[in-house]
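Researcher:
Attend to token order:
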Amino acid sequence: MVEKQDVMTQLDEVEDPELELSIVELGLVYDVRFEEKDEVLHAEIDLTLTSPGCPAAPEIMAAAHRAALQTEGLGSVHINLVWTPRWDPKIHATEDARMDMGIWD
């Protein structure tokens, strides 16, 4: 049985090319949901970006799609680009990522 953490482990390999930090550490992956489609396990992944004008958006989304498909047991993946809630590194990023970005509480 595939679990959310399995997909998150694969997504942790994807980096934001400008910040050189994992999209998981940055908190850009908001949710992973599963559904069965024609006896194939499908994942819906809600992903946001650091800003609406992010020039690396296509690259990040494609890399996330490829990485998630590497999860054993998943047959298909769809990346949903979402803007709500608006990404805030002080809220969504891990402590390590905030430190790497120079954000101190």
User: Anything to note?
Assistant: The longest strand covers residues 29-37. The CA atoms of residues 41 and 74 lie 5 Å apart. The helical segments are 4-11, 57-69, 89-92, 95-100.
